[in-house]
């Protein structure tokens, strides 16, 4: 019915290995985001791990303003990283997917 089961299992294993390689590679893909005025800069990986935060001294005197900057800029950076992550992971997953009837959602 499904053809060569062992061939499909091999393809699934290849897809899983490709996903794992992609996860590892995404640790080295850096996403930079800055506040509109450049007073706050954030760098994170495409796996959404924060690598660096640079804060202008003028923000250090007002905790509430700094919190606002952090929330806005972190959310923008996470959104960018998530888009990259989702696209790359979807591509990796479909690379080795066997042709199983009804499973064409990955194609």
UniProtKB/TrEMBL annotation:
Protein name listed in UniProt: Nucleoid-associated protein FDT66_04145
Keywords, alphabetical: Coiled coil, Cytoplasm, DNA-binding
Family of the protein in this entry: Belongs to the YbaB/EbfC family.
Principal subcellular localization: cytoplasm
Function comment: Binds to DNA and alters its conformation. May be involved in regulation of gene expression, nucleoid organization and DNA protection.
HAMAP family on file: DNA_YbaB_EbfC
InterPro entries per record: YbaB-like_sf, YbaB/EbfC
Compartments where found: Cytoplasm, Nucleoid
GO CC, one annotated term: bacterial nucleoid
This protein's record includes keyword Ligase: no
Keyword Transmembrane helix: no
Entry GO MF terms: DNA binding
Quaternary structure and partners: Homodimer.
Coiled-coil stretches: 5-32
